[in-house]
Amino acid sequence: MSSAGPDCGERLDVFMGRANALYYATRDPFADFVTAPEVSQIFGELLGAWCAVVMDTLGPDVRLVEVGPGRGTLMADMLRVLTRIAPSRLARLSVHLVETSPRLRRAQEQALAQFAVQVQWHDALGDVPEGPILLVGNEFLDALPIRQFVRTETGWLERYVQDGQWALQACPDVPLDVTERGAAPGEVIETCPAGQAFMRELGRRVSEAPGAALLIDYGTSRSCVGESLQALRQGQPVSALVEPGTADLTAHVDFAGMARAAAKAGAVCDGPVEQGAFLIALGAIQRADALCKVAPAQAGSVRTGLDRLIGPERMGRLFKVLGVRSPRGSPLPGFLQEHGEDT
Ligand code: SAH
To answer: Which residue lies with its CA nearest to atom 2 of ligand 1?
Structure first.
């Protein structure tokens, strides 16, 4: 790694944004990684039931929003549950998908064609019509571009990408959330400006109209020191600097930082809690038991899927769930309160 002069390529977040836009537009991401809704229908069914309960607190004309909907599997599983348990609410619901990849938009359209709901696509949350929202996002934040700063004895350097190599450049205006984390010389700090901007927009919306959201992703509950940027190609880890668009680039989500951004914009956050605890609180084990009873031949795969979602060594601990809501609302279902009661 070398220091570089003023013209030293692309800042990491610019490179990562370009690489991921190309990747999602041209590749099948699910050849490289598997997400919770693709692991088991239980994930989307529980989130659908969660939506049915929370929707009742938000008044009429709720926009059901999903950010980064992938193949549309999560929304399809949620809509199947809502059709069954809240059909009258469903009739008054509009569905909004925030998705930048034309290829994945087509997959989502196919997955949702079976439901009697109106679906609209948007490039960003800011394009979704104002008003009450109920939003979910699974593995959306980890795909958003990050910046990386390296602490040195004399100040901060920022990572750039030049001709497939790392380059470092002095940064005159290092963000406060980077400098205040107490890094030692040689240590790296990551920050996700696009994620923060998204959380500010979400926070503003739920403070101005009734609203609630769940952001589920892998990451840390507290803002940490260290680097987590990773690239996967055909399921294998590769350098993050490979040819843009050929690998999926992700980074751990700093949930504390995301919660701070939403709170600054007027929202209240619940959690983050671990995915395993959250899904168990929502009834994951009972749902798996019920599925095994109706289809005993599938019991093995139901149990394997459940274990992947909630197992502490699987997705149960690394993945976290953050709730975001209007300040006047009550705590969201599934988040343990300090006195140990589930609400
Ligand atoms: N939620 C899905 C897919 C996760 S993959 C699942 O759990 O299976 C990340 C998703 O976010 C993809 O749909 C990708 O196209 C979308 N995405 C990535 N960056 C985005 C951006 N900046 N704006 C909107 N969508 C984005």
So the answer is: 70
